[in-house]
Write a structure and sequence with these properties.
Elements: E1 24-34, H1 40-51, E2 54-60, E3 64-72, H2 73-85, E4 91-100, E5 109-111
Parallel strand pairs: 2-5
Antiparallel strand pairs: 1-3, 1-4, 2-3
């Protein structure tokens, strides 16, 4: 248990460390096509976790999937390349990505409801 008087008490107990905050690239994406009901979220979580990335994936309205991913820039690029294809059963018609601010609260890549 964390010391309630610790100056670090407001931070998560587990953090992914990088050499500089500027080394972290964060991106938010919306993916359209046949991306729901084909294992997209589970495969994306596994792929991101294997790459050591953090963030989340969730289904959103209109049959789309939304992703927030962060980590080392070149590794995020590898993941984004994978997102353009997705899992075997998926069909990605469009991937819209926008830069985002890194969020140190994430220590893993999770599926959100």
């Amino acid at each position: 248990m964390r010391d309630p008087d610790s100056p670090y008490r407001h931070y998560p107990a587990k953090l992914t460390l990088v050499s500089h905050v500027s080394d972290v690239r964060a991106v938010r994406c919306q993916i359209s096509g046949r991306v729901q009901g084909v294992g997209f979220r589970y495969t994306a979580r596994d792929r991101a976790s294997d790459l050591g990335l953090t963030g989340w994936v969730r289904n959103i309205s209109g049959g789309r999937v939304e992703v927030f991913v962060q980590g080392s820039g070149p590794i995020v690029d590898v993941f984004l390349t994978w997102l353009h294809d997705g899992p075997t059963a998926a069909r990605v018609d469009r991937l819209a990505e926008v830069p985002a601010l890194p969020d140190v609260r994430f220590t893993e890549f999770e599926i959100r409801p």
